[in-house]
Amino acid sequence: VDGAVKYVVYSYVDGKYAQLGTCTATSYTAKNLTNGKKYGFYVKALVNGAWSDWSSADLVYATPKAN
């Protein structure tokens, strides 16, 4: 996001939302996920001292697999 100085990343799993963490980079690695479980992710950006709307009306889903 142009002008963003910070991002906050949230997850959605098993019907619950949770804040995973914050970062200043445009990438984030979610840790301690359970293999085979479906996770939704969304992001807010801090621009000019105000938090943006959610990253999308739809969550981005991912299902981690064992290495």
- Number of helical elements: 0
The biggest sheet, with number of strands, parallel, antiparallel or mixed sense and barrel status, is:
5 strands, antiparallel
- Strand fraction equals over 45%
Taken in chain order, the helices and strands follow as EEEEE
* Straight-line distance between termini: 32 Å
**Share of helix among residues?**
under 10%
Report Rg. Answer: 13 Å
Furnish the topology, listing elements before pairings.
Layout: E1 4-13, E2 16-23, E3 39-47, E4 50-51, E5 60-62
Antiparallel strand pairs: 1-2, 1-3, 3-4, 3-5
Kindly describe this structure.
The mean pLDDT is 86. Strands 1, 2, 3, 4 and 5 form a 5-stranded antiparallel beta sheet that branches. The protein has one domain. It is elongated, with a radius of gyration of 13 Å. It contains no helices and 5 strands. A hairpin with a 2-residue loop joins β1 and β2. The chain is mainly beta and 67 residues long.
Structural features:
67 residues, mainly beta, 5 strands, 0% helix
Question: What's the gist of this structure?
Answer:
The protein contains no helices and 5 strands. 0% of the residues lie in helices and 48% in strands.
